[in-house]
Amino acid sequence: EVQLQASGGGLVRRGGTLRLSCAASGFTFDDYAIGWSRQVPGKEREGVACFSTYDDATYYSDSVKGRFTISRDNAKNTVYLQMNSLKPEDTAVYYCALRTIRDYRTTYSKESDFGFWGQGTQVTVSS
Using CA of residue 55, residue 48, residue 122, residue 118, what is the dihedral sign? Predict the structure, then answer.
């Protein structure tokens, strides 16, 4: 059974930092594209950062590029999202996301780019 257990969300002020963690199980961790998406009420999930399937290439959405960093520890089957210089517009529920099709892509921006999500962790950035 595939499981993605996200943690690390919380309430921070503008300019603050948070580090999200996602512990994965139930699949071969480095065989699939894995990353993070986020969702605000009334909108689809958007991909914000992701490792590609076949190498360590990374995707970042324009809105987080330069502020967020995705990393992974294959020995622990864990992927992280370091979020710096947080803005109120980063407020969302963040989901660990898995692309369940093994293919080569360079972007992971849409909800349809992923096939499985963990339970989500709330990130709130106050102004």
Answer: negative
By C-alpha distance, which of 124, 102, 113 is closest to 8?
124
CB neighbour list of residue 27: distance below 8 Å, 6 or more residues apart? 2, 98
Q: Give the residue-averaged pLDDT of 21-29.
A: 94
Report the alpha-carbon angle 72-25-22, nearest 5: 40
- Tens of pLDDT along 76-111? 999 999 999 999 999 999 999 999 999 988 899 999
If DSSP codes are grouped into helix, strand and coil, which group holds residue 89? Answer: helix
86 by Cβ neighbours in 10 Å (0-12 / 13-18 / 19+) ranks as buried
Residues 6 or more apart whose CB falls under 8 angstroms from that of 113 comprise 47, 50, 99, 105, 107
Read off the tokens for 42.
């009334």
**Strand pairing partners for 47?**
37
Residue 56, pLDDT above cutoff 90: no
